[in-house]
Amino acid sequence: MEEISSLTLLLQSVNENEGIPDKKVWKLDNSRVFSSKFLFSEIIKGETPFPSYSFIWQSNEDRNHLFIHCPLASSLWSRMLLEFGVYWVWPKDCQNVLLHASGINSKKEWKKRLWNVAVIATFWSIWIDRNKRIFDDAKEDLNSIWEKVKYLVALWVYDTRFFKDLSFSDLCKD
Hints:
This is Reverse transcriptase zinc-binding domain-containing protein. It comes from Trema orientale (Charcoal tree). The protein has 174 residues and is an all-alpha fold. It has one domain (35-166). The chain is built from 8 helices and no strands.
């Protein structure tokens, strides 16, 4: 970890264009505007902007490691399965997670909808945490990230026809 910090400090001291401060900029797409559509197209293609060792610093990051197999992601998915009472062998790759996300076995339509949103919120939260670790050198604990997943789910389903009878605070609860 010290070697990485030393390298980061060394790289920050290098400035190719004198007089212009260097910035951490990540060009997301040609329009430079982030969209979830773009993110998921990159996930499905199997590309992340550059390889890194952001979560456990032991394995080169690819989409499947980042979103499914790293310890943080694996713990989040386990919590989600437990929360929904789903007993499921987790798919080995992101594409199958997205393909099978709508396949949970529930007679309740609202539970299926909530599950689909929770899958996307979990992917999104992992992505946000990954970027914080890389670009801001900051990380959050698992409980904080899980609370954000639940908050996003509540925010995204609030005032939809399946959940219109619930208050926002009810949705934010477990």
